[in-house]
Amino acid sequence: MNSIRASLVTMLVAAFALTSFLAALNGYQSSVSETQKLMDAQLRHASAILERAGSMGEGNGGLAEYDSEFIYQAWLDGELIMSSLESPIYALESLKEGYRDANYAGYRWRILTRRTASDHWYVVAERMDLRNALAEKVALESITPLLLWLPISALLIWVLVGWGLRPLRNLSRQINMKRSDDLEPIYEHEPPAELIQLIDSTNSLLARLSASFEREKHFAAHAAHELRTPLSVLKVHLHNLAEELPEQHPGLAHANAGVERMHHLVEQILDLNRTNPDIIQGMFKTIDLHSLAQRVTAAAWPAFSRKAQTISLDGEAVSMQGDESLLETLLQNLLDNASKYTPEAGEISVTVGERDGGAFLRVEDSGPGIPRSERAHVFDRFYRVGNNGDSESNGSGLGLSIVQHIVQLHGARISLADSRYASGLSVTVEFDTEEVGE
Amino acid sequence: MLLTSVILVLREVLEAAMLVSVLLALSRHWQQSINWLWWSLPVGLVGAIVFASLLDVVTDAFDGAGQELANALLQGLLYCLILTIVVLSPSNASHKRLMSFLMAAVLSCAMIREGSEILIYVVGFASAGEHAAAVYAGSVIGAGIGVSLGVLLYSALRALSDDRIQATSMVLISLMGVGTIMQATLLLEQVDWLPAGRALWDSSWIVSEQSIAGQLLYAVFGYEATPSVLQIVLYTVCLSVMFGAHYFSVMRWGNLNEA
Questions:
Q1: Which of A29, A414, B3, B116 is geometrically suited to a Cys-Cys bond with B51, CB 3.0 to 4.6 A?
Q2: B212/A contact by beta carbon, under 8 A
Q3: Which residue from B161, B34, B46 is spatially nearest to B99, judged by alpha carbons?
Q4: What is the pLDDT of residue B49?
């Protein structure tokens, strides 16, 4: 996964480390150079002290423990008049004023040759390796903290980049926490310049989406309403026509059945639109699911009795939070389907109860049931089991889509299984615990 | 001592870091897995330790020319692997597994040679005691500069537009591949397996091999301040082969796609 924070931190740490290391190298070189200059100055001081000692007739014999590190000579008219113990009896370098480097006794030496007004030549020399080691030690002391502090800098960069990216995190959290039906524009107080474009684009997208939902909401509703009027007129004309035509006229029966199907379809489209969870919110209140089931079952009784079907209601009173009107539509659709697909004299049962702290509603029938392979598709709009276009069942293929809408609005789950009868379907809707009222 | 450590470690780390950067950028660009990185790192590390521990045996082989020959061989192998990647690049989508293997092999080879050099140097000098601090500090600075430049190169390549990543990465990896031949020629000249001719020019007054810029150029195309005629000839031939092979591969793949 790509992370802006990780990429930024890696790049910043790399850039910071690069410049720090280059600066450290630069500092190291300067420190070494300055230390060498300092030691050259010390060499000059040593030469001056030697001159003073020589003028007092002292100085021969050297400095005991430093003999291997420091050599001096004093020359007058080509003769060595004074020297340290380790000093050669010849001149370390040709007697020429200034600083020079030369090899002696297996080491490289830094030599200062100085001529005095009295024509004395003073030669002082220090071992280069010791000087370099000292210079390096001084320089290292100055750059080591830089290396040790680098991890702290990296940590600081990590934290600061995190802070810097907070507006982006806030924005993504705000978008993430938006409810699916909340199409209000995003608001960010004093957004950074980099996010203004993103916020503007997102708000423009939300506005277009909202307008599109509004259009969809109104189009289906208006279209269905507009269809109702001519259908009613058609029904009246068919009724009048029935007065004039002989009873049992086959054309009239077909026309009536067609108008009924059309009427049912229009009502279902209205219901589908009325229950769309993307565009509506439920009016939730505490209801008793069992008494709701009683009411709906009683209202559906005439349809069952026409087919001599038996309907039973089991269970106990259970209160829950829900939209009463929508839940009535849900059960009506389930019962409508059960009645339609169950043969004459079949059995249908409704069970209401409480399980795992949540309410449930189950409708079972003794119809042919739905093959397992088709169960995943029955919630698709206009899908009919077997898809044989059987007009006998008078189904629009929208009933279970409406049921699913209502299930979604209640945050519930719906499952299909075999019924407890020899054949048939069992539809169970389970509501979440928090939806169950006190 | 510190500067010597910086230059030696930088030279080796920078070369490996730039190779990893370009290969990673190509992998991302070709939408391939970068798993090759995770198993080539341990292989390269173990290889470097084994190579460094066998140094005495290797050095004594071929009348004392063993180490140079082994390194030259690894460099030659690197060139061949990079050449294969360059040739297969136009048809990378059809050779995803092979490409991953080649990238892992390139990194492993580079790590074995460069890792062993660093190990030999750091272990050798650090055990000397008095210089240990300078060697460690120099190694950290050298490695830090090398890795940082690698990370920045990768970031720069990723920031390029899609149509430029491929071309830039191809040029870079080709130059790095040919650079290995420059280094191999130098090694073979050192052990008299190739005649060491007179230096054709000396550009150390413009860019010293011992400077950071010199090391950067060395890592990118095997910069040599005083190249011999043979080095220049071999460099030119290998560069022509690399670019020529890539050109013909692009043409052939283009024709196949059109057909």
A1: B116
A2: yes
A3: B34
A4: 93
Q: Is the Cβ pair B148, A133 closer than 8 Å?
A: no
Instruction: Please judge whether B212 and A22 are an interchain contact, meaning their C-beta atoms are less than 8 angstroms apart.
Output: yes
Q: Which two tokens stand for residue A351?
A: 């069970």
Check residue A76 and give its pLDDT: 86
For residue B94, give Cα distances in angstroms to B88, B89, B103.
9, 10, 15
Counting beta carbons within 10 angstroms of the beta carbon of residue B245, is it exposed (0 to 12), middle (13 to 18) or buried (19 or more)? middle
H/E stretch holding B213 reads: helix B212-221
The tens digit of pLDDT for each residue in A80-109 reads 888 887 777 777 777 888 999 988 888 899
Cα angle value A258/A263/A265 (rounded, 5°): 95
Query: What pLDDT, on the 0 to 100 scale, is given for residue A279?
Result: 65
Q: How far is B210 from chain A (nearest CA, A)?
A: 13
- Residues in chain A closer than 8 A to B140 (CB atoms): 147
The answer to whether the CB atoms of A147 and B137 lie below 8 A apart is: yes
Q: A4 and chain B: CB distance < 8 Å anywhere?
A: no
Sites in chain B below the pLDDT cut of 70: 128-129, 257-259
Quote ipTM for the complex: 0.86
User: Is residue B155 less than 8 Å (CB to CB) from chain A?
Assistant: yes
Cα–Cα distance, A391 to A411 (Å, whole number): 33
Residue B155, pLDDT score? 93
Structure tokens at A13: 């740490």
- At A51 the pLDDT is 86
Give, as one character, the DSSP assignment of residue B199.
Answer: B
Contacting residues of A for B151, CB less than 8 Å apart: 10-11, 14
> Hey, how many other C-beta atoms are within 10 angstroms of the C-beta on B21?
23
Contact between B152 and A14 using a beta-carbon 8 Å cutoff: yes
Say yes or no for a CB contact (<8 Å) between B144 and A15.
no
B6/A25 Cβ within 8 A: yes
Tokens, residue A372: 């397992």
Distance from the Cα of B35 to chain A's closest Cα (Å) equals 14
Residue-level pLDDT at A57: 62
Examine the fold and report which residue of A255, A280, A305 is the final residue of a domain before the chain moves on: A280
A211-243 pLDDT tens trace: 888 887 778 778 877 888 888 888 898 888 888
Domain count across chain B: 1
Give A4's contacts in chain B (Cβ within 8 Å): none
Closest CA to B258 of B90, B10, B144, B135: B90
Contact B145 A136 (CB under 8 A): no
Percent of the residues in chain A that have a pLDDT greater than 70, as a whole number = 92
> CA of A13 to nearest chain B CA: how many angstroms apart?
8
Tell me, yes or no, if B144 comes closer than 8 A to chain A by beta carbon. yes
- List the domain range (segments joined by +) for residue B145: 2-258
Whether the per-residue pLDDT at A59 is higher than 90: the answer is: no
Question: Which residue range forms the structural domain that includes residue A11?
Answer: 4-159
The residue among A231, A256, A280 that closes a domain is A280
Rounded distance between C-alpha atoms, residue B181 and residue B242, angstroms: 12
Q: Are residues A190 and A127 in the same domain?
A: no
| A133 has a chain B CB within 8 A of its CB | yes
Do A154 and A219 belong together in one domain?
A: no
